[in-house]
């Protein structure tokens, strides 16, 4: 019986270690900028650094409880362009992939 308990304990420990070492979603500013370029959703008159910063602002606002639809409208109003849907989608996919709103 002790051998069986050791096997079960070893298997459980291996499972926990495996979960702890599993890759997690990470922000990818390069892919974010690529997606904006492909979809023609670049913020007008903004540098790459400013666009990435705006994307992180979008992530922060989504995490704070702003709805996706409201954030789309906020982005369009804030930056005076009509691609808020694409911008928020690219932000949440590439800069805050852990956001599940």
UniProtKB/TrEMBL annotation:
Residues of the signal peptide: 1-27
Protein name: DUF732 domain-containing protein
Species in which this protein is naturally found: Mycobacterium yunnanensis
The keyword Amino-acid biosynthesis belongs to this UniProt entry's keyword annotation: no
Pfam families per the UniProt record, alphabetical: DUF732
DUF732 domain location: 30-98
Upper classification of the organism: Bacteria, Bacillati, Actinomycetota, Actinomycetes, Mycobacteriales
Domain of life assignment: Bacteria
Matching InterPro entries: DUF732
Keywords in alphabetical order: Signal
């Amino acid at each position: 019986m002790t051998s069986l308990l050791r096997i079960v304990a070893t298997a459980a420990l291996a499972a926990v270690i495996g979960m702890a070492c599993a890759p997690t979603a990470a922000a990818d500013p390069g892919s974010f900028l690529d997606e904006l370029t492909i979809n023609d959703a670049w913020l007008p008159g903004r540098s790459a650094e400013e666009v990435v910063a705006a994307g992180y602002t979008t992530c922060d606002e989504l995490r704070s409880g702003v709805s996706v639809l409201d954030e789309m409208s906020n982005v369009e109003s804030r930056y005076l362009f009509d691609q808020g849907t694409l911008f928020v989608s690219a932000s949440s996919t590439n800069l805050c992939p852990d956001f599940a709103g």
